[in-house]
Design a protein that fits this description.
about 140 residues; 1 helix; single chain; mainly beta; two-stranded antiparallel sheet; 5-stranded antiparallel beta sheet; 7 strands
């Protein structure tokens, strides 16, 4: 889109694995017990700078459906999960105005509207089982 000035997306995955529980022992060294499996979590963050809020929010909406990385022995990524749970999304809208302008973020006066909109976003998912597989 020609009205997008700049954009960036980051994907962070914490893979599932063995849950380690630390048990304090009075007057002794702690014990570590393995207890079940820790769920995986995927977080997609980023930002977009655009000429209008509509364009920026449209671009952010498309990032919510970012596909999982391709399965590969070299990368260790498992097959994309079929079960995951979306958590509530977060967005932050920053209105940037031209210098020396008495800005009005939601106004109708073209001379006072933002020169640029930045939208920061976070989408996250809980994945019951998604292990990292590099040996």
């Amino acid at each position: 889109d020609a009205t997008i000035i700049e954009c960036s997306v980051t994907e962070k995955i914490r893979f599932s694995g063995t849950r380690q529980i630390v048990v304090p022992i009075p007057d002794s060294t702690v014990q570590v017990q393995q207890l079940g499996t820790v769920e995986a979590r995927r977080v997609i963050t980023g930002y977009v700078r655009a000429a209008t809020e509509t364009v920026a929010l449209g671009w952010v909406k498309r990032q919510k459906t970012l596909a999982f990385g391709a399965q590969s022995v070299g990368t260790g990524l498992p097959v994309a999960p079929t079960v995951y749970y979306d958590e509530p999304a977060e967005i932050e809208i920053v209105n940037q105005f031209a210098k020396r302008v008495d800005g009005d973020a939601r106004g109708t006066d073209a001379a006072r509207t933002p020169a640029m909109i930045t939208v920061n976003f976070t989408f996250s998912q809980i994945i019951p089982y998604y292990p990292y597989q590099i040996s």
